[in-house]
Amino acid sequence: MRYPLPYAFARGNQLLLEDDGDQLVLWHSGTPARGAWSEVLRKHAVSTVQQLDPAALAQRISAAYAQGESSAATVVSEVQNDADLSRMMQELPAVEDLLETSDDAPIIRMLNALLTQAARDGASDIHIEPYERHSSVRFRVDGSLREVVQPNRALHAALISRLMIMA
Q: For residues 161 and 140, what is the distance between their CA atoms, to the nearest angstrom?
């Protein structure tokens, strides 16, 4: 069984498109977003439309994509819709707060957003370079490096440490 819709789209719009090889079945929860509904019908030759209650559909979507994608792909897909790198950099706490706490959540969110944007932009490399006052994060896209963000230099060690843990 294949699921042609991206996970984030299916989850966000409460639509599940199942392809069993013979027919396409579109599952919905009653009143899906009009734009999403029409986009799926425009792009795919849907054979059957079925309705489920929202809780059952959410469970069906989770189960369908849990077996079809790796967990990393699902996480990237989830973060992809919400990743706004410049906003996220501004929301990070002050350097003193970040270094004094044992909570790495801001660094994790920042690194997830960087990796998501790199995947979305089609980057082949990610360069994270420390400078005197800031770090530079650049993506290599189509053979050329372009700067994405300049986080505070004090975040560099935590960012690289988290990246090494992931590796």
A: 22
Give dist(CA 151, CA 134) in Å, integer.
6
Q: Would you call 134 helix, strand, or coil by DSSP? A: strand
Q: How far is CA 80 from the centre of its chain?
A: 3
Paired tokens of 132 = 């005197």
Whole-model pTM: value is 0.42
* DSSP summary character for residue 153: G
- One DSSP character per residue, 14-32 reads TEEEEE-SS-EEEEE-SS-
SS3 content of the chain, % helix, strand, coil (to 5): 50, 20, 25
Cα 94 from chain centre: 25
Q: How far, in whole angstroms, is CA 44 from its chain's centroid?
A: 23
pLDDT string in tens for the chain (167-residue length): 688 887 778 888 888 888 888 888 988 888 766 788 788 888 888 888 888 888 888 888 888 876 543 433 344 444 444 445 555 555 555 544 444 444 456 778 788 888 888 888 888 999 999 999 888 889 998 889 988 888 888 888 888 888 888 88
For the four alpha carbons of 23, 24, 30 and 34, in that order, the dihedral sign comes to negative
